[in-house]
Design brief:
heterodimer; A: alpha+beta; 5-stranded mixed beta sheet; 10 helices; 8% strand; elongated; B: alpha/beta; 2 domains; 6-stranded parallel beta sheet; 49% helix; disordered C terminus
Chain lengths: 388, 231
């Protein structure tokens, strides 16, 4: 959206400049002055939107952008009815490009308003035309204004649309890639469960079966030996049960379903070697998919910090966003040796974490620099559509 | 009987070594932890039989089967019993694909019954075949889901006999387990082989391969009876 805003700002202020030059060359004109006023107003509104966007208030910025475009579309059509078609196009564009930044509740009103205003713009164009024609006989000046002004506006529209299409293409490409990676990860997870079962519990149970066979044979021949084996069996059975429990817990920790992240994150933190602090104040329940994504991302980040960071402490924080909606922020930081995220081509684990969080509707950032530790930071914006 | 035992899990291997060594029919157990160790143990120690996990390092896939295939060329007299964790018949079919002489395929849980295990080792040592009944059952049940399958035309008793043939049982042991005479078993076997259009098998181990591969071949069986997934 900020790229769109910048293109818009550039085009608007260069239109202002062009009109100002026309005004100086051709002398006072009702049309030029009117257009200048409209464009300056729109430019100021867009500057405000840019400031809002810079402060992460993208929903409000989108709303301001849409209103600014409405104003300029109405104004330019009022002062120059020949610009009515461009005004109509201009009305539609911000809706297409910035609507996804709007809060869901504002989308429908914005769409309805755009449709209504398209009628208004067309009506203004038609009604102002005779008056305009009577006062503005077609001169070289009018032709020049049209020839300069229309391409300028259209270039804004085209640039915006092109940018939008490119971004959409990039996003689709990224989604396709992450979907493919998730599919691979799912298969990989199954394979690793099978391997864990095969190498762990299944092997232990087979060993128990072997030893039971021995006990059966030795029962009468060598009772002390049989007794020793039975004692061993008990340990082996306990180990098999422990293996299965650990594996089941790794597949889905029951506490996550029962008590959510508030219960599951402290439990995960107790399994580390390094000390790990957990702050889950102000954290509520979220949809199962979000909780699971956050949980497995946190456990992986905790594991990485524990094993590879070389630091002395890990801290985990998670809390709901303030204000309405069900936003959620979480972070895992360590004070280890860190790494250069640009230098490390996104590693398997980090990409996997990001894919998982994105699939659940969130965003993930990894902040690290050599010697400055690593922080993994995730955010689910309020009102994000969360898969159930 | 000298046995090479190839199993990568140390715990299970130790248990098996103890189990086999305690048995009077076993003279010596030589241990191997992966495919390489198995191959060198066989070429250096010249054992009578090999008891091998199907899945071992380096690839943890089908090392046991591949080793058995190789021994068919390098040590034709060597008996091989492969242990599998899975009831899938594919492993057994791959094992007998080049012939079932001196080949055994058992599920891992059978190791608790040392007599069963040792008798399987002795059977493959004699050149016979032993296939886990559970695997044969699964193949038979799968076959019977196809109404066009000739297996469905067999009588109940013939199906029982067919299942036992596939496990590698001899005529006399089939007769014993079904409480009928050897003559009756022979009659059943002839009838089965005619109905299934299989080459009349004189030797037990050839019969096993023929029957197993017949049961395992799903390409010639159109029209499943029910639309439920085939296991």
């Amino acid at each position: 959206m900020r790229a769109y805003l910048r293109v818009n700002l550039l085009a608007i202020w260069s239109s202002v400049l062009a009109l100002a030059i026309l005004r100086l060359v051709f002398g006072p004109s009702h049309t030029i002055v009117g257009n200048l006023v409209a464009l300056v107003a729109c430019g100021i509104l867009l500057l405000a939107a840019e400031l809002l966007a810079a402060r992460d208030r993208s929903a409000l910025a989108a709303a301001v952008t849409i209103v600014a475009t409405w104003l300029v579309a109405l104004a330019i059509t009022w002062v120059g009815p020949f610009l009515a078609p461009v005004g109509l196009l201009a009305l539609l564009l911000p809706l297409v490009i910035v609507a996804d930044h709007l809060v869901a509740a504002w989308r429908t009103p914005a769409i309805v308003m755009t449709v209504v205003l398209s009628g208004v713009v067309a009506a203004i164009g038609v009604s102002q035309w005779p008056a305009y024609e009577s006062t503005h006989p077609v001169t070289l000046r009018t032709v020049l204004i049209v020839a300069l002004f229309v391409p300028l506006l259209v270039s804004v529209l085209v640039a915006g649309l092109r940018d939008y299409v490119i971004r959409l293409g990039d996003r689709t490409h990224e989604l396709e890639e992450s979907r493919a990676r998730l599919a691979v990860a799912a298969i990989e997870a199954r394979r690793s469960i099978e391997r864990d079962l095969h190498d762990g519990a299944q092997q232990r149970l087979a060993t128990i079966a072997v030893n039971l066979g021995r006990v059966t044979r030795l029962w009468d021949q060598d009772p002390p030996q049989a007794r020793t084996i039975v004692h061993g069996l008990q340990d082996q059975l306990e180990a098999a049960i422990r293996d299965l429990r650990d594996l089941a817990h790794g597949i889905y920790p029951p506490i996550l379903g029962e008590r959510g992240l508030v219960g599951a994150l402290p439990a995960a933190a107790r399994r580390t070697v390094l000390p790990c602090t957990v702050d889950v104040q102000g954290l509520g329940r979220h949809s199962p998919s979000v909780e699971a994504a956050v949980y497995f991302c946190c456990t992986e980040a905790i594991h990485n910090a524990d094993r590879h960071s070389g630091g002395s402490i890990i801290s985990v924080q998670a809390s709901d966003d303030e204000g309405p909606g069900r936003g959620l922020r979480f972070s895992i930081s360590d004070d280890g040796h860190g790494f250069d995220p640009a230098g490390v081509r996104s590693t398997h684990g980090l990409t996997g974490m990001r894919d998982r969080i994105r699939a659940a509707g969130g965003e993930l950032r990894i902040i690290s620099a050599p010697g400055r530790g690593t922080t993994v930071e995730g955010h689910f914006a309020p009102g994000t559509r969360q898969p159930r | 009987m000298r046995v090479v035992l190839a199993e990568d899990s140390v715990l299970l291997r130790q248990g098996l070594v103890a189990l086999l060594t305690e048995h009077p029919a076993v003279a010596e157990v030589i241990e191997a932890g992966d495919l390489g160790e198995l191959l060198s143990a066989v070429s250096e120690q010249e054992p009578d039989v090999v008891l091998a996990d199907i899945r071992m390092p380096p690839t943890h896939t089908d090392e046991g089967i591949r080793a058995a295939e190789r021994f068919r060329r390098t040590h034709p007299k060597l008996g091989v019993v492969v242990l599998s964790q899975h009831a899938d018949a594919e492993g057994a079919l791959a094992l007998v694909a080049g012939g079932s002489t001196g080949r055994g395929y058992l599920l891992k849980e059978r190791v608790s019954d040392v007599e069963h295990l040792v008798s399987a080792l002795e059977a493959v040592r004699r050149g016979e075949s032993v296939i886990d009944p559970h695997v044969v059952d699964a193949l038979m049940r799968h076959r019977l889901r196809f109404e066009a399958s000739p297996v469905a035309r067999l009588t109940g008793r013939e199906r029982e006999v067919l299942g036992l043939i596939a496990t590698g049982a001899s005529n006399s042991s089939i007769a014993a387990s079904l409480h009928v005479t050897s003559r009756a078993v022979e009659k059943h076997i002839n009838s089965i082989f005619t109905k299934l259009d299989l080459p009349a098998g004189d030797r037990t181990h050839r019969r096993v391969a023929a029957v197993l591969l017949y049961l395992g071949d799903s390409g010639s069986t159109p029209r499943p009876v029910a639309a439920r997934p085939v296991v």
